[in-house]
Specification:
single chain; binds zinc ion
């Protein structure tokens, strides 16, 4: 239900590629801060971890932003992007259970779910997908640090290619901030976009032991993709 990014990753990211990912994200920390995206440690306190083993951060718990009582379960509206105050964020209703917002904002604490990308995971703990990749995800509440998360995912996609698959609730507009910052600071970003496809999702409804039937519904799957720039002639 909450706004979520998903990624499929290899069990170990090779040294050289991890170095690129770590270095590129390191270069974004100050520009992100200048843009209003301040990063804290995984639990919202202390500095973010950007090391040879892990990239782990959250928004700061004590950020000084003001709360908005009406900001329950914020979800971006179609064109939502950027960051702004919570007082002007709400622009609609989200299926009667939450609100839609037109920009990222904070509700008195910029801290939400911890984002973690490890160089190597313990691959005994879960099953790989058909490509040998392991899935992970983070819900961001469309807090400001959502921009930093989309930057890390874009950077990892750039360096790992088809070994890193990103699905997201976010559409092109919600990825525009990461694209712009990565292009400006790192020289890549413009050629990333979100491809949308309609897929059937099957969920088993368990109404009782004799009444187990697949429940199908159409969902939109969004995938981060790096396009090939046209050949210069
Ligand atoms: Zn805040």
């Amino acid at each position: 239900m909450g706004y979520t990014h998903y990624w499929h990753r290899p069990p170990t990211i090779p040294d050289g590629l991890w170095d690129h990912i770590q270095r590129d994200f390191d270069e974004l920390v100050l520009p992100l801060s200048d843009a209003g995206v301040v990063l804290a440690g995984g639990l919202g306190k202390g500095p973010p971890e950007i090391t040879k083993d892990v990239i782990r951060f959250n928004g700061p718990e004590e950020c000084g932003h003001s709360a908005n009582e009406e900001l329950m379960i914020p979800y971006p509206s179609n064109d939502a992007e950027g960051i702004g105050p919570s007082s002007t964020a709400i622009d609609g209703d989200f299926f009667g259970v939450g609100v839609t917002v037109k920009h990222r904002c904070c509700n008195g604490s910029c801290c939400y779910e911890t984002f973690t990308l490890e160089k190597a995971i313990d691959d005994s703990r879960e099953e790989a997908d058909e490509d040998g990749l392991y899935v992970d995800y983070v819900k961001t509440g469309f807090r400001p640090y959502d921009i930093a998360i989309t930057c890390v995912l874009l950077i990892a996609k750039h360096w790992l290619g088809n070994q890193f698959v990103v699905h997201s609730n976010g559409a092109d507009a919600q990825w525009s901030d990461a694209r712009r910052i990565c292009q400006k600071v790192l020289g890549y970003g413009d050629w990333f976009g979100i491809i949308e496809e309609a897929i059937m999702e099957e969920t088993i409804t368990k109404a009782g032991q004799d009444d187990e039937r697949p429940d199908e519904r159409h969902v939109t799957r969004r995938t981060l993709t790096e396009y090939q720039p046209p050949e210069m002639s």
